[in-house]
Amino acid sequence: MNQSIAIQSWCFRHFKAVADFISRLKETGVSATELCALHANFSDPSTYAATKNTFDAAGVKIVAIGVETMTGDPAKDKPKFEFCKALGIPNMSIHFAPDLMDGNFAGLKNVDALAEQFGIKIGIHNHGGYDWLGTDRILRYIFDRTKHVGLHMDTAWAIDAKQDPCKWAELFKNRLTGVHVKDFLYSEKREPRDVIIGTGILDLPKLITTLKTNNFTGPIVIEYELDEQNPVPALKECVAKLKALM
């Protein structure tokens, strides 16, 4: 696998200033990110050039943005696609409310059309057992009715919905646009807790083997949400585990 490892910028949410975020990101040994809206304004074209210059000057590649809520209204959703196009970002992780499926999928078809127009790969980010987009059944239903909507899989949240992310990597290999590599352990009350990837429930070697076998070329993004004020040590461990397998 030749693609770079990236880290979700939400992991650095304590560091709201972009310069601080970039500094912490580089401490992990990684120079690629999936950028969340905390660290950029996706809806204001006047900021696009400055954002691009900042990340280019720092040598940080933005492999995706997200997770972005799609409304089904082209006027509201289009700026996010324009941001990606302006900065040369190929991927966007998305989610949306069930009403985008009303009227013969009218809203979702608008999102589908924007993805085609701008040449951006969009993928549903499954958010776990509480999320209506969290099971293979609904994902298959949506994929059968869209052309460009894919899956930006979150491994821990797939597990949370009692799904197998390794099976998903195979089942949805033709719609897999990106992967959030994230791992959980659970309390007795079934409360999830982030852990270093590969030390929880996720079968990390099997996941990477499956992605390699299927020649997956999308972004591989680490997400670890504990240690908000100092995530770098844990993220370094995550990076090391992933590099050893890739």
Structural write-up:
The chain has 246 residues and is an alpha/beta fold. Helices cover 39% and strands 20% of the residues. The chain contains 9 helices and 10 strands.
Mean pLDDT value: 96
**Helical fraction:** 25-40%
Looking at how many chains there are and whether they match, the oligomeric state comes to single chain
State the shape. Answer: globular
Strand line-up across the major sheet: 1-2-3-4-5-6-7-10
Q: What structural class results from the helix and strand content?
A: alpha/beta
Work out the helix count: 9
- Main beta sheet strand tally, sense and closure: 8 strands, parallel, barrel
Separation of the first and last Cα atoms: 6 Å
Radius of gyration: 17 Å
The residue ranges in which pLDDT falls below 50 over 5 or more consecutive positions are none
Strand content range: 15-25%
Number of E strands: 10
SSE series: EHEHEHEHEHEHHEEEHEH
Short description, anyone?
The chain is of the alpha/beta class and 246 residues long. It is built from nine helices and ten strands. Helix 3 (74-87) runs parallel beside helix 4 (102-118) and helix 7 (165-171) runs parallel beside helix 8.
